[in-house]
Amino acid sequence: MKSISRFLAIVLVAFLGITQLSAAEPIKVVEYTNTVNPNDPAHLSNGIIVAGKAGSVRAFSTLNLTSSSIMACASCADFYKQTLGDNINVYLMVVPSAAAYYTPNVAKSWTRSPADVLNTLYSSIKSDVKIVDVYSALAPHAKENIFLRTDHHWAPLGGYYAAKEFARVAGVPFKDLSNYDAVTVPNYVGSMYNYSKDPAVKSSPEKFVYHKPRNISYTTTYINIRLGSGNVPVGENRPVQGEYFMHIPGDGAYCTFMGGDNKITQVRTSVGNGRRLLIVKDSFGNTVPGYLFYSFDEIHVVDFRYFTRNLKTYIQSNNITDVIIECNISFACSPKPMASYKRLLTK
């Protein structure tokens, strides 16, 4: 395929009289300037930044990122593309944290912006990996509820904007939120209270809002992965059909999507375009698949921490056409998780 493409390029150059074909410019990330809460008070509680006033505080982790540490992610993305070959589209989706958008001026020295680290990552990828620039896609929407105030995860709305950017890069159909029904879970307090132990977080509950697609038929099949001591996978159950959106009230609302992480999930839709997507993810990736039911015939979801099969064999057996490597930016800057992502292809 590469030789044919090269031949066509040469013919195009000769026909049009072009002297040189230039390579695509790498994505350049522009650092976001906080316009949402720049003047909020903030303090550290157990290493967690707690910004704002009681009743509406926003709690998030600091980021200790280096340009050298991101190279493991670049190596991982290149390895996926080299292993899977030209016939499978490979995408990299690195999810920033709330610190990227909501760090008040008083707390700027406590954390680092991911912009220059992401620029290093994107410019270091050597293969034909397609970048889904979530950082830039979210920036225009920072005043919306794209991150949860009381949890380390982003909000479902953040996943929506990431899915929209991915659909643009992948060239697949995408429908806006007018095609979804919003479902609200009130009085949500997420993981940041347990991490920070700060009473201001506990007294600042929020609404957890997710979206269910309308007028699209789909079925969801799960293979539950049994976990032993230390959450180590010890086996798989037989496939069963179930609900994709599991309405879970209270503090467990983030498990609304697929009921959690230790599953192999397959969603079959009525789209009919021949595209089959696999998302290899951490928990941030849970919010993304539900916004792509209008975009793919099938969506497969596996978590890098619990999937025990050979991923290349799984991709071939299920005729996957597109693969997303999704990871949060802390994992992207950590060699150990990135090595785990790579090992999935060689088990």
Describe the structure.
The chain is α/β, with parallel strands linked by helices. It has one domain. 27% of the residues lie in helices and 24% in strands. It is built from eleven helices and 14 strands. Strands 4, 5, 8, 9, 10, 11, 12, 13 and 14 form a nine-stranded mixed sheet that branches. The protein has a three-stranded antiparallel sheet with strand order 1-2-3. Strands 6-7 form a two-stranded antiparallel ribbon. A hairpin with a 5-residue loop joins strand 8 and strand 9. The chain starts with a helix and ends with a helix. The N terminus is likely disordered.
Secondary-structure element order, N to C: HEEEHEHHEHHEHHEEEEEEEHEHH
- Helix content range: 25-40%
- Mass-distribution shape: globular
Number of domains: 1
Number of continuous helical runs: 11
Task: Briefly characterize the structure.
By secondary structure, the chain is α/β, with parallel strands linked by helices.
Please render the helix and strand layout as text:
Layout: H1 2-16, E1 42-45, E2 48-51, E3 58-61, H2 71-84, E4 89-95, H3 99-102, H4 115-124, E5 130-132, H5 134-138, H6 156-170, E6 180-188, H7 192-196, H8 199-202, E7 206-213, E8 218-227, E9 233-236, E10 240-242, E11 263-269, E12 276-281, E13 298-303, H9 311-317, E14 322-328, H10 329-332, H11 335-343
Parallel strand pairs: 4-5, 4-14, 12-13, 12-14
Antiparallel strand pairs: 1-2, 2-3, 6-7, 8-9, 8-10, 8-11, 11-13
Helix pairs in contact: 2-11
Features:
globular; 347 residues; disordered N terminus
